[in-house]
Amino acid sequence: xxxxxxxxxxxxxxxxxxxxxxxxxxxxxxxxxxxxxxxxxxxxxxxxxxxxxxxxxxxxxxxxxxxxxxxxxxxxxxxxxxxxxxxxxxxxxxxxxxxxxxxxxxxxxxxxxxxxxxxxxxxxxxxxxxxxxxxxxxxxxxxxxxxxxxxxxxxxxxxxxxxxxxxxxxxxxxxxxxxxxxxxxxxxxxxxxxxxxxxxxxxxxxxxxxxxxxxxxxxxxxxxxxxxxxxxxxxxxxxxxxxxxxxxxxxxxxxxxxxxxxxxxxxxxxxxxxxxxxxxxxxxxxxxxxxxxxxxxxxxxxxxxxxxxxxxxxxxxxxxxxxxxxxxxxxxxxxxxxxxxxxxxxxxxxxxxxxxxxxxxxxxxxxxxxxxxxxxxxxxxxxxxxxxxxxxxxxxxxxxxxxxxxxxxxxxxxxxxxxxxxxxxxxxxxxxxxxxxxxxxxxxxxxxxxxxxxxxxxxxxxxxxxxxxxxxxxxxxxxxxxxxxxxxxxxxxxxxxx
Length: 498
What we know:
The chain has 498 residues and is an alpha/beta fold. 37% of the residues lie in helices and 23% in strands. It has helices spanning 58-74, 82-98, 100-111, 115-136, 172-181, 196-208, 222-231, 244-256, 280-292, 312-325, 344-359, 392-395, 411-418, 434-443, 476-480, and strands at residues 4-10, 15-21, 24-26, 29-31, 38-43, 48-54, 144-145, 151-159, 162-166, 185-189, 215-217, 237-241, 261-265, 271-274, 304-308, 363-366, 382-385, 402-408, 423-424, 426-430, 448-451, 466-467, 470-471, 484-492. Helix 3 (100-111) crosses helix 4. The longest helix has 22 residues, at 115-136. The protein is globular, with a radius of gyration of 24 Å. The model has no long low-confidence stretch (mean pLDDT 96).
């Protein structure tokens, strides 16, 4: 039997005991991995091991696929009306609400994001997503299409089947909710760095009463479990959120196996454009939120900040003051805003980008160094100036609290610079001129454009990228389209064949 991780929180922000099953979740039960091996889970604030979880392998994926396929054919999919699926999803969301602080504490512990941020936004947003798709579950339907009086023609939107989902960090609800609402069964690989909250939710899935095999969770490494999911001949769809490099590998494996349906939400290098007429104080506040939220570890972080020359000096001065004011430290510390990077590997990667910026001639205006004890993965908020468009820190996704502030002169110039990237996930425009907002927003090659705000997402609004930022959309009704097969039915009423 797999071990249970128990932990006592005694912090200024949260006090309580938590228990998390550390096994794989397959066919409605927690089980040991076939290999009997484990993965160490580290506290990114200290670098110390929190616990171990079972390490899945390709054999465990085979077991999970068999369970998911059986559930799809017998107790889920077309065997269960959408209203019943919706009730179970809503029950899960309710149980998560009842455990909100506990889930937030677990996520902050092994993820490093400030407890206040996780409690105030991450977990509530996840709960809202599940409720949103619970409401959709009995409203997924085709349409009757008028052709002629001699036939009835209509479409059905049927679940695809067994779905493999590979996610980092905070994406559990975003992936499972539309897939389950549409009637698919799911095998999910959470990040091997941060699996604890996903495993805790599996206990709530049991409590909610989902049939065994509908949702399975296999923790493991990308080159084993991720690869097995992507190439498995009995998985019908793969959905991935992560780097563009890994997305390419998944796309290749999906095409070389059974040509799986894919959804990819990949990297970004998002531009945040601030014009002379913008409310500077608000632009500063939103820009800080855009780049430093979750330690910059979000794919749509506003890492390229373009400021028009008329307000550049004022903006940079205020942006610097605001960035310095961020409290960096223990996610459970009072007023902590910025926690540690997710791992020592990611910390070294971010520091490598900072070094490359210096080596290529950019100026470190603020930060550029590690913060506090070296055992923790903390990096100071970093601002670069005096950059060139060809620098790595301008072109490549860093996934950390590193921004570049770039002066521009006119609208045509900044649109060209903003679109000079392989990515196209998100962008922002700050201006009081509504005509300019529309014009620039329409010209930007990005799947999401915010005007006078940043990082604003909603369960009902689609999210996804252009160019090498991905394929498909998350959220809203658009996400559901990626989890159904559309079948056309032609019913002959009175046509005769001569």
